[in-house]
């Protein structure tokens, strides 16, 4: 097949554009699959779940504190009643009974106050953690929104570059004879279609060419098509 150096150079440019478009398509597919978005969503989801768990724990502690305060109020009410009865009785047996009950109530009050103190400390700790998680949630929501916009922008940019290169491809293909273009397309469908002969190696497959094959290649007229003996790619000599 007759070929010109100019046509071979155009084929090399076409191949570069095709391979570049394939990379763009791969990058666009990776972006569209939502890898970055999925990671951003997962971070937000994990934080939201932890936030929900902390809120539930805080609500439970607040209920426990409310119950303890009710118990403390009952203890205080009972103790006040017993103190009032103690002031009004002179019967030693009743006095001893009321004093014993007041001691028991006082011990119960101390126990309840200690438990309540621990719960109040835990409540404050959870409140601080909630504030941090809520702030982080806002940051993650903003990050997710930014990631969405970034992905959309990058996809649009890839689409524009792909369209521009596709137009270049159409223009370049019109400059190559049809029979040479068909052969090139067949080879490109299987892999790299064209490469430069670099001393004794093929620029398409990077394989070294034997001295015998190299001599045969040099014997091919400059205006005739030459191919790599290993990968059959078109060679630019």
Automatic annotation (TrEMBL):
Signal peptide: none annotated. Residues 22-189 form the CT398-like coiled coil hairpin domain. Residues 201-235 form the C4-type zinc ribbon domain. Residues 41-175 form a coiled coil. Keywords: Coiled coil. InterPro entries: CT398_CC_hairpin, Oxidative_Scav/Glycosyltrans, Zf-RING_7. This is Uncharacterized protein. It comes from Aquiluna borgnonia.
